[in-house]
Design goal:
The structure is a single chain. The strands form six sheets. Strands 10, 11, 12, 13, 15, 17, 20, 22, 23, 25 and 27 form an eleven-stranded mixed β-sheet that branches. Strands 2-1-5-4-3 form a five-stranded antiparallel β-sheet. Strands 18-19-24-21 form a four-stranded antiparallel β-sheet, with no helix packed on it. By secondary structure, the protein is an alpha+beta fold. The chain starts with 6 loop residues before the first strand and ends with a strand. About 9% of the residues have low confidence. It has three domains: 150 residues, Beta-Lactamase; 167 residues, Mu homology domain, subdomain B (Immunoglobulin-like, Sandwich), CATH 2.60.40.1170; 108 residues, Mu homology domain, subdomain B (Immunoglobulin-like, Sandwich). A hairpin with a 4-residue loop joins strand 1 and strand 2.
Length: 456
């Protein structure tokens, strides 16, 4: 970090100071008032969403969570991305202690809040942000706090995200990837069978496909984005090694796979991953934290076709009577089947008296979202189903009214045992001095979060 934070403020929704911690002595509580004044001034600005405010030699970086503003003030040139990430970690730690971060929880636990702020930042530099480690020496019982006489080994150990002496009767590790935005979300699950006394489970690995189709049926944006989340319940201090079908790694080793290799871009790892090892030989080696954590996020530049294609034809029989014909076609192999398919078809906000017929599944009118919702429980590959809907519109319209903006069609679904991007887990190993072993197997699931097909 280029510079240090001068102070950290926690403000209510009206800008009043709830808690503030001075780290360097070069700012005062009046800075909170100046920050909020500048923030109000920015509300009418097109750049009002920027998380940075500058005034009279002081830089303010802030985020809002619920009814609380978290803000840092600094007179030095700081790394903005690191500080914003730190503020989000502060939110995670407070939620770990208080279940939810809001004005009331801060007022009820202000003593613990000060203790946490003292441990998480030292003289303006971020220190410990792992809630599981902080909870070992900052303990709460209702509104009381007990502090141990000596810090846990993780505070002084190089592996600050994991405590020593962890012991489980049944050792297991699981993971899943989750992504958002309008996408196809692809899940791959890898479970490990039980051998001897150790049960090792790598449960889910999933990713998302961002896709946007214009009104002419052309894909104008398509890429795969994912986040690999893991849950580990392993004894001791295990060393984990994960290998994917990474093209750079396979070419360096002169190896080929039965499937295709992938190009990983924009990779971001958890602090437990040894970055030098990855840069040298592309091996993902790490000592995992105990419990849940995000191992990595990544992006794949790949062209993906919509797995379920939807076409809609709108025909106006009169000024007030409209008919819609919708065709949904699965564009994957017959051996796969999509489940829990849901197609949302937008209609005019003043539509009434809907009559809907489908060749498969059921459909209903959802006036709260101004759309027809078509649900198909099972949609095999290579099939096409139809929906025909008829509704009426008011016969009298405002000629000066602006044309209504048409919302896109949105599709959701799941396809078990199916993958789009071609990403594969080549191996997942555990090395621990007790010597337990595991044998992996992989299960794939494709899920659609949201993808959009624009209407004409």
């Amino acid at each position: 970090m280029a510079g240090a934070v001068s102070a950290l403020f926690l403000l209510d929704i009206k800008g009043r100071v709830l808690v503030w911690r001075d780290y360097r002595g070069d700012v005062s509580a009046i800075q909170a008032e100046r920050f909020f004044t500048k923030l109000i001034e920015k509300e009418g600005d097109a750049q009002s969403q920027d998380p940075v405010v500058y005034n009279n030699g002081v830089s303010y970086l802030f985020i809002q969570h619920s009814n609380v503003y978290l803000m840092t003030a600094s007179r030095q040139n700081c790394n903005a991305a690191s500080l914003l990430f730190f503020l989000h970690r502060v939110v995670d730690v407070f939620k770990h202690y208080f279940e939810e971060l809001e004005e009331e929880s801060l007022r009820d636990n202000f003593v613990v809040v000060y203790e946490l702020l003292d441990e998480m930042m030292d003289f303006g530099y971020p220190q410990y942000t792992e809630a599981t480690i902080l909870s070992e020496f900052i303990k709460t019982d209702a509104y009381r706090m007990e502090v141990t006489q000596r810090p846990p080994m993780a505070v002084t150990n190089a592996v600050s995200w994991r405590s020593e002496g962890i012991l489980y009767k049944k050792n297991e590790v699981g993971g899943f990837c989750f992504s958002s935005s309008y996408e196809l979300l692809i899940d791959s699950c890898c479970r490990i069978m039980e051998i001897s006394y150790c049960f090792f489970r790598f449960s889910w690995m999933s990713w998302s496909v961002n896709i946007l189709v214009n009104s002419n049926g052309q894909i104008i944006r398509s890429d795969v984005v994912g986040a690999l989340k893991m849950r580990t319940y392993l004894s001791g201090m295990p060393e984990c090694k994960l290998g994917l079908n990474d093209r750079i790694l396979l070419e360096a080793q002169g190896r080929t796979t039965k499937g295709k290799a992938i190009d990983l871009d924009d990779i971001k790892f958890h602090q437990c991953v040894r970055l030098a090892r990855f840069e040298n030989d592309r091996t993902i080696s790490f000592i995992p934290p105990d419990g849940s954590f995000d191992l990595m996020t990544y992006r794949l530049n790949t062209q993906v076709k919509p797995l379920i294609w939807v076409e809609a034809q709108v025909e106006k029989h009169s000024r007030s009577r409209v008919e819609i014909l919708v065709k949904a076609r699965s564009q994957f192999k017959e051996r796969s089947t999509a489940t829990n398919v849901e197609i949302e078809l937008p209609v005019s906000a003043d539509a009434s008296n809907p009559i809907i017929r489908t060749s498969m599944g059921s459909a209903s009118y959802a006036p709260e979202t101004d759309a027809f919702v078509w649900k198909i429980k099972s949609f095999p590959g290579g099939k096409e189903y139809m929906l025909r809907a008829e509704f009426t519109l008011p016969s009298i319209t405002d000629e000066e009214a602006t044309p209504e903006r048409k919302a896109p069609i949105r599709v959701k679904f799941e396809i078990p045992y199916f993958t789009v991007s071609g990403i594969q887990v080549r191996y997942l190993k555990i090395i621990e001095k007790s010597g337990y072993q595991a044998l992996p197997w992989v299960r794939y699931i494709t899920m659609a979060g949201e993808y959009e097909l624009r209407l004409i």
